[in-house]
Amino acid sequence: MIGGASGVVLLMAMLRARVGSGSDVAVRYLSSARSFGDVIYQLELDLLAAEHDGIEVLHTLTRTHPPDWAGPTRRVDREMLAERVWPVGESPLCFVCGPTEFVETVATTLVELGHAPNRVKTERFGPTGGGRR
Q: Is 11 helix (H, G, I), strand (E, B) or coil?
């Protein structure tokens, strides 16, 4: 799972469902936010990872970070996806949610890394250009 900004909302619902059902499906969640204060559900995400086997959470901060921050401090990129997403050979389902440009970039990169397009599920939000006049 890879979420940008408020894209975490949909992915959090999936994580809660995974926990609520008693599933043991392994999950890696990569959250991208401008700052640590902008990570929606940060406390709950970290608690889920601490309390449930098979759930990993990584935050990347793109603009500002606490002085003692040890995590990534850049946008989600090819190298980060290659390091953090399950290996292509395991045929993982990849869920990507966030602003349109973020989703398009991440999904395209996942396919370039060898993930099957039908295993990359996306949900995006942003301006449509067709507003009411």
A: helix
Domain residue limits, the chain: 2-125
pLDDT digits (tens, 9 = 90+) for 93-117: 999 999 999 999 999 999 999 999 9
Closest-CA residue to 32 (of 104, 107, 96, 126): 96
For residue 89, give both structure tokens: 């050979």
Contact 89, 119 (CB under 8 A): no
Q: Which positions ≥6 away from 6 have C-beta within 8 Å?
A: 40, 98, 125
For residue 27, what are its two tokens?
């999950």
Chain center to CA of 1:
4
Question: pTM for the whole thing?
Answer: 0.89
Indicate the CATH number for domain 2-125: 3.40.50.80
What backbone torsions phi and psi does residue 120 show, to the nearest 5 degrees?
-110, 105
Cβ partners under 8 Å of residue 64, min gap 6: 34, 35, 36
What are the start-end ranges of the H helices in 27-118?
42-51, 78-84, 100-112
Q: How far apart are CA 114 and CA 109, in angstroms?
A: 9
